[in-house]
Fold each of these.
Amino acid sequence: MDNNKKTRLVVLSGAGISAESGIQTFRGGDGLWDNVPFEEICSPIGWAKSPKRVTEFYNARRAQLAEVKPNEAHLILASMQDDYDVRIITQNVDNLHERAGSKHVLHIHGELTKVRPLDCYTSKDGFSTEYVQDIGYRPVEIGEVGGPNLKQLRPHVVFFGEEVPNLSKAARLVQQADILLIIGTSMQVYPAAGLCNYAQDGCDIYMIDPSETPASAVLGVNHIKNVATEGMKEFRDMLNKMTHTI
Ligand code: NAD
């Protein structure tokens, strides 16, 4: 079926969708960040203090990504493309949605498998991706440079406190949603957390998360209080039933 005729399902995913693949979340329980002050690692100040520490941290995340696989939640979402016009907006820097087969994935916090020279992809060059490089899962070394001015390569991720260049694209997608699914995000990291406010009247909003989050308190959000894999099965079955009773 032509994508224009399908119901548009916009998904806002966060670290929780990848938790069952073995990638730790930021917060809660055994969160990756409970022992690491993230302002020190994922921030321009952290980089200024020690580019080596930041580089090694992301090298480790990238190496781990090579070892994990998409889980049932990523796979169900990809399979829903047969019946829905699925658009994924992810806060995740992993590539598990793509590896599951999802075709439309917008990364708002960057991608682990990419790097860029320090002076590129800034407001000065209009966030041009010309010098963004795909490096797969390999580590980056201090002293490794690129771009026209041969500057140190840094992770192609949005550090805390940095601008989120894909935010307006993401807001437009949320505005066009017939159904909005928020999955595995604590909705605590702004500005991404504000995206659900762009949903139009009449858009059905669902959330899959085993915990209460700021969004789950909002009237009208259907909260499936379960982990991503089980929650996605419930969500898919719920939508199927609705389609068949219309
Ligand atoms: P977060 O860590 O703040 O919140 C994770 C949410 O997932 C929580 O609400 C938690 O209850 C829920 N959760 C935990 N286990 C779950 C499961 N099995 N199924 C479903 N939900 C589960 O994550 P966030 O809101 O995405 O925070 C944003 C930041 O985290 C982003 O900037 C993102 O780049 C970064 N991050 C990404 C990854 C990744 O790429 N996989 C991993 C860690 C952090």
Amino acid sequence: MQTVTPEFIAGMPKAELHLHIEGTLEPDLMFYLAERNGVSLPFETVEDVRKAYHFSNLQDFLDIYYQGARVLLTEDDFYDLTLEYLQRAYEQNVWHTEIFFDPQTHTERGVAFETVLNGITAALKQADEDWGITSRLIMCFLRHLDEQAAFDTLAQAMPHRDKIYGVGLDSSEVGHPPSKFERVFAKAREAGFVPVAHAGEEGPAEYIWEALDRLHVARLDHGNRAVDDPALVERLAQDQIALTMCPLSNLKLCVVKDLKDHPLRRLMQKGVRVTVNSDDPAYFGGYMNENYLAIARALELTRGEVLTLAGNAFAASFVSESRRKELFDGLARYVASFA
Ligand code: ADE
Ligand code: ZN
């Protein structure tokens, strides 16, 4: 059996479906933007920043992540941030990407919704023109904030339905179940936004049931804790609800103690459509290729299984059917090149 090498992963066409644009803020860019905008940072050097990136749970990370986002103020900042991520995606053979953004992280600091949105979408357009990378944008509600704040954010998004494809739910999970946002999601779906939600990262399997039955999500972000509930696994497999899993994130945030314990393969073997993604790559030590390689090595995945993961992401992408065909054709050509 041929082993999965870094070259095999690097050359494979990929789609990324779980990526927070604020989580792509590399320390170098953080310092550069802090200087450009006159924002003070609680770190002296890039080395200090990297040393601070040790987390024992999700909240530890979020505290630092929201701090970092303070350097993002202008449309140019959001453009630069997004284009830097897309450049890396291009270098890693990512053909399609679906990007989360958290408007409340910025509007709470007085940055206009349109400043965030216009900066990001200008970079997405540029990457499509220059590199042929297609994308979708998903606006997340911060679940630690209240329902009214989410309704206000949804109202701000309404004039921009042409640019924002879906709505999601992120931030501190435990104590903030999906049901808290049932009414906001109903309104968002009615307006045509496709719903997704983080569930079962730290929260229990019950939160995944809620995301399915009360938010009616088209896809689930993380979903690790589904393994605790065989009936839930069966439901995910039956309805082909994809999970956007994030191996290095799970390791860094202590969702798993060791990548060898990661549920990705067990779920895949039960027929669940699992995918590999990077979540917040600047904070967790790896972009797409590093995530694929780490999970392939830890779980001793075969080349066939890795190709299945890449295909799962194409199948679960929110793309047109013609684009989906291009993605699958690219993967088929890649497989044929090894025959
Ligand atoms: N926001 C950014 N990354 C996140 C994660 N892994 N879980 C919840 N919220 C997030
Ligand atoms: Zn996430």
